[in-house]
């Protein structure tokens, strides 16, 4: 690569700002404490014997010669996209200007472990690719992926508020659910030779819970069912009133903590399970996050939580938050309601529900969907009654699919950095994940008086004008445009933004939402 001296001077000035966040720190060996990649083992939830020692893991650096160094990323960014914007639409000057004019406050609520087909599968709004709208072409899984003459279970309406057997949402679990094997060939995936069949949800649920009291019919139904509109009235009203993404994928086909790291930083830096690096007393993540970016830009933020245990305060993942004295910006949810009422919400509000069993409100099994709906309703109505509502964008999303079925195959995607993750699969094989493909679809909505009513959003466009799906890093790309910070890594840089979905005229919005449904 050759460039003249004037370009080098400019490059070095730019890189002094950017490169600090990009080097990869050494990552310690870690071991998953549970067999399903979850925050709780089945033992801790009283659901039977936990499957321990299925996922001994250790992140590692990639030996591949085509990995991009931090300096090369800066060069590419300067040459190829950080400063270049499209003339119209997402990421354009006119779109960003309009967003900055109307949106002053952003509120993000991240729920837990539900796929789009599971929680929005019964929504009849045109444009949503889901079971109820695909009645003529039902989505089914054979109980044995290799036996097409055997028993199968198809997507069907769900009549229960929750489930008792939490599905597998580790990397290995997602591999089986998407590809029908714990060890799909990575080269074949990247070349397009191997595509996700989305055929292993039932088989993996039966394997994981083969020692439970539930029969195979019940186990299969737990992962293949969806909620009718009447059972999720809060979400149904929001879908009909605001913008819903049809193709928003989780950033990582694995469990909670790495996905939450992607939501707030665009990478997990090679971490693929809920290891101790995510604990508040460890704060083992040393790379750039939205919290640090906002702090350096003199923007206000708070991380509101319901329960500070179980790795459910995402700001506390990051060492900078503690070293800079910003750990006190993580506060209880009661402060959110007070701030909203007083019109004192910060620029960025990041809200986390409680997790993960009965009595929690994140929708994570075995928690009840109705309790999650009540929490969403409370947050919405507090915002709607706030004097800051007219300048607020509320993003409601989920961290990952939680092992629930979704029929839409997740795509490949650019790597955020050059760190890999290795784990031992349930059948005792080694599998290496390179962070080069997305997880399954998750429900994501934009809620504001500045978004269209009842709109279903399909793919976005990247910096080259190519049609690509949305994911969690689309949030960081959009916030970068709103608050003038650059992408932290390749994944964010290449993600589609959604600034163009902000209207130029405010519209009327409902002051309240229906009460959650009461069912079994």
TrEMBL record:
Superkingdom classification of source: Eukaryota
UniProt GO molecular function: hydrolase activity, acting on ester bonds
Transmembrane segments: none
InterPro entries linked to this entry: Alkaline_phosphatase_core_sf, Phosphoesterase
Basic and acidic residues: compositionally biased ranges: 30-41
Biological processes, Gene Ontology terms: phospholipid catabolic process
Disordered: annotated span: 28-70
Signal peptide positions (record): 1-21
Entry keyword set: Hydrolase, Signal
Protein name according to UniProt: Phosphoesterase
Protein species of origin: Penicillium capsulatum
């Amino acid at each position: 690569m050759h460039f003249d001296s004037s370009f080098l001077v400019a490059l070095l000035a730019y890189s002094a700002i950017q490169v600090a966040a990009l080097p990869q720190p050494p990552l310690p060996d870690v071991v998953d404490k549970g067999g399903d990649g979850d925050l709780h083992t089945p033992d801790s939830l009283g659901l039977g014997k936990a499957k321990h020692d299925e996922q001994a893991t250790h992140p590692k650096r990639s030996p591949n010669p085509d990995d991009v160094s931090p300096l090369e990323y800066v060069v590419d960014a300067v040459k190829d996209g950080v400063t270049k914007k499209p003339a119209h639409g997402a990421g354009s000057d006119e779109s960003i200007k309009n967003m900055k004019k109307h949106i002053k406050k952003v509120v993000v609520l991240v729920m837990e472990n539900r796929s789009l087909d599971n929680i929005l599968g019964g929504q009849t709004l045109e444009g949503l690719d889901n079971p109820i709208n695909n009645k003529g072409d039902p989505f089914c899984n054979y109980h044995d992926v290799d036996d097409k003459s055997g028993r199968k279970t198809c997507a069907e309406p769900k009549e229960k508020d929750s489930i008792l057997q939490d599905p597998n949402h580790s990397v290995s679990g997602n591999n089986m659910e998407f590809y029908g094997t714990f060890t799909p060939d990575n080269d074949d995936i990247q070349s397009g030779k191997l595509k996700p069949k989305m055929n292993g949800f039932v088989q993996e649920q039966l394997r994981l819970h083969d020692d439970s009291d539930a029969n195979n019919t019940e186990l299969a139904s737990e992962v293949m069912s969806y909620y009718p509109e009447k059972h999720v009235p809060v979400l149904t009203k929001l879908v009909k009133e605001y913008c819903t993404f049809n193709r928003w994928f989780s950033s990582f086909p694995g469990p909670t903590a790495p996905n939450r790291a992607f939501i707030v930083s665009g990478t997990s830096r090679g971490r693929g399970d809920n290891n101790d690096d995510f604990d508040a007393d460890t704060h083992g993540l040393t790379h750039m996050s939205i919290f640090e970016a906002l702090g350096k830009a003199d923007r206000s933020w708070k991380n509101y939580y319901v329960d500070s245990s179980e790795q459910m305060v995402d700001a506390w993942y990051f060492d900078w938050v503690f070293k800079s004295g910003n750990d006190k910006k993580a506060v209880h949810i009661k402060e959110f309601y007070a701030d909203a009422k007083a019109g004192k919400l910060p620029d960025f509000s990041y809200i986390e529900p409680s997790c993960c069993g009965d009595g929690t409100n994140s929708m994570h099994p075995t928690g009840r969907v109705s309790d999650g709906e009540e929490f969403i309703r409370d947050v919405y109505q507090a915002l709607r009654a706030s004097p800051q509502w007219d300048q607020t964008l509320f993003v409601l999303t989920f961290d990952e699919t939680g092992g629930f079925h979704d029929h839409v195959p997740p795509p490949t995607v650019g790597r955020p950095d050059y760190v890999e993750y290795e784990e031992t699969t349930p059948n005792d094989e080694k599998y290496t994940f390179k962070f080069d493909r997305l997880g399954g679809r998750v429900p994501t909505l934009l809620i504001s008086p500045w978004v269209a009513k009842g709109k279903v959003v399909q793919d976005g466009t990247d910096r080259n004008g190519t049609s690509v799906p949305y994911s969690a890093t689309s949030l960081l790309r959009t916030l970068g445009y709103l608050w003038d910070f650059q992408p932290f890594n390749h994944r964010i840089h290449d993600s589609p933004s959604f600034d163009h979905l902000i209207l130029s005229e405010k519209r009327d919005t409902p002051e309240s939402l229906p009460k959650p449904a009461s069912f079994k």
